[in-house]
Amino acid sequence: MKSVIAEHLVKTYRNGEVKALDDLSLDVEEGTVLSVLGPNGAGKTTTVRILATLLKPDSGIATVAGIDVIKHPDKVRELIGLSGQYAAVDETLTGWDNLVMFGRLYHLGKAASIKRAEDLLERFSLTDSARRPIKTYSGGMRRRLDLAASLIVQPKVLFLDEPTTGLDPRGRQEMWEVIQELVKGGVTLLLTTQYLEEADQLADEITVIDHGKVIARGTSDALKKQVGGERLEITVENVDIAKTQEIVSRISASATHTDIRTISAPVTTGSIALMEALRALDEAKIHPLDIGLKRPSLDDVFLSLTGHVAEEVVTEPVKKKRGGKK
Amino acid sequence: MKYVISDVMTITKRQLLQLARIPEVLVFSTIQPVMFVLLFRFVFGGSISTGQPGGYVQLLMPGIFVQTVAFTLAATAVGLAEDMKKGLIDRFRSLPISRGAVVIGRTFGDALLNILVLTVMAAAGYAVGWRPTAGSLSIALAFLFLFMFGYALSWIGIYVGLAVKEARTVQSVGFLVTFPLTFLSNAFAPTTGMPKALQYFAEWNPVSTMVAACRQLFGLKNEFGATASSWPSQHPLETSLLYMVLLMVVFIPLSIRKYKNTSN
Question: Are residues A264 and A161 in the same domain?
Fold first, then answer.
């Protein structure tokens, strides 16, 4: 069963001048993680905002847990959790204050709100900082608290909008562990990210979007296959390059130089090709500086799908002009 | 819908908690009006002759009370704009809470702060010689008027905050509106010295009618107006009440609607 369905979403800003979403469709299978991957301004946040009932699309339909988000936003709000870039907590209050407040707003009783807040603080290793204002928290702690706030009532569907943007590597790693923990618990998760590695790590399925359109979808593996399979990469001393090229061309038809000391060749037999190459190099008394099988990264995927690397595009309006309703 | 009251209370409580967590806000929001009381009392107090028993401070206090509650407009607007900018409003809007609870809660929070500010100012006024002569019921009514005026303006603040969105701009807009309104009035000096056109403006200015109403309720003669024969000068209580009702009737539904339709 699909927990989230979006069909033909269109959203324009500034009276149609800027197309944030251009006929975007996606869906998330119940109990799985979908990562919406794309550069800044691709339409990720707009998509999440529509699905989380914060924004109405110009056209198109969307359902969450089978409920129409446009017609019954109130019902949808009871079933979702939202955390990320734009949904935040009160920074002047303590972590404890915030979670208790959100508990009350989810209409848990007073005692139940406190109990839930303390459980969540414990679970996200925030008990020690519970009584400190959020503004004294590190970036990672803040995101964890934000995530905790979206889990007050076990949501049917969780939306995480760029949960690790702006975090340092350690904070990101911690956040990933927390999310992976959640996923094990069986939550349906839609996660947006501009980090290819993050999608690869966390998602069952990836939808790549660019300029408000879906440009590819599938599992991480499928996407990588779409770009091309594994490649054998060998780096040798300059003097050995010609000989190496000859050896590799026996294994793969289209060996290419990636730089003057490295040869890269698509292979279909994986580790067998690797061993074959090693044996041949050994016989030729060539000692490679580096040798390995390389699977295409999601960066490669993005490059081959969009023709540009996954970097910021500046079509998204930085600041909304007056009158243009968002 | 059955949770409206609980939702509003939670949001209001959040604002009070904020004050508890950052007491500086509380200190500065009371210091400023107290400073105004002292400055006006001792800078102008000596040079403005009033003909009222008790001197300038009797006329001044109602003026400063009204000016202070008028700043609620900016305070509400800035607070809301900041919440929006930080994404807190989006969080609230993604929750299954009753519509309007977030903005109603904010107006309540700001109103409660006003009670405290008015109390501190009254004490400061008393310390520098302010002595209302009316009966306690009448004085209580004056404070009720001040409270309600601040509350009504809070709803304009909600609208301004939602419409302008950028906290710093909101602050400027708030002051651009409230400063001329408080000074183009009878709050600090008689309007008779103003050019004719401004006198008319000052007469109908809700700040003037509020100040006149409060002076009356505190037991002063109704004066300091421009042409004493004009309707708002003659009926400051009625005019002020009318303004407050009008503001609330227009801006409460308008602001709640705006809130529902607003997103960043």
Answer: no
Q: Are residues A252 and A198 in the same domain?
A: no
Strand order in the sheet with A256-259: A256-259, A262-266, A231-235, A290-294
- CB of B20 within 8 Å of any CB in chain A? no
Which residue in B has a C-alpha nearest to residue A75's C-alpha? B96
- Domain span including residue B184: 4-261
pLDDT, one tens digit per residue, over B114-172 is 999 999 999 999 999 999 999 999 999 999 999 999 999 999 999 999 998 888 899 88
| Residue A92 to residue B7, Cβ atoms within 8 A | no
Q: What contacts B191, CB < 8 A, 6 or more positions away?
A: B185, B198, B199, B202, B203, B208, B224, B225, B226
- The Cα–Cα gap between A71 and A61 comes to 10
Q: Work out the pLDDT band at A75, boundaries 50, 70, 90.
A: very high
* Chain A: closest CA distance from residue B96 (Å): 5
Q: Residue A287 sits in a domain of what CATH number?
A: 3.30.70.270
Task: Tell me the percentage of chain B whose pLDDT exceeds 90.
Answer: 54
CB pairs under 8 A between A and B: 71
A269-278, B103-112, B236-245: which range is least confident on average?
A: A269-278
Cβ neighbours of B3 in A, within 8 Å: 107
CB B114 within 8 A of CB B150: yes
What mean pLDDT do residues A282-291 have?
85
A66 and A161 part of one domain? yes
Give the gap in angstroms from C-alpha A71 to the nearest C-alpha of chain B: 14
Q: Per the CB < 8 Å rule, is B7 touching A74?
A: no
Q: How far is A146 from chain B (nearest CA, A)?
A: 10
A89 touches B at CB < 8 Å: yes
- On whether any CB of chain A is under 8 Å from the CB of B22, the answer is yes
**pLDDT tens digits, B187-234:** 888 888 888 888 888 889 999 999 999 999 999 876 655 555 678 888
Work out the average pLDDT over A44-49.
Answer: 93
CA distances from A273 to A234, A263, A280, A318, B51 (A): 12, 14, 11, 50, 105
- Measured over the CA atoms of residue B86, residue B91, residue B93 and residue B99, the dihedral's sign is negative
As a whole number of angstroms, the distance between CA A135 and CA A309 comes to 35
* pLDDT given for residue A261 in this prediction: 82
A residues 14..43 contacting B (CB < 8 A):
none
Query: What is the reported pLDDT for A257?
Result: 67
Residue A100 within any structural domain of the chain: no
Question: What's the total number of domains in chain A?
Answer: 2
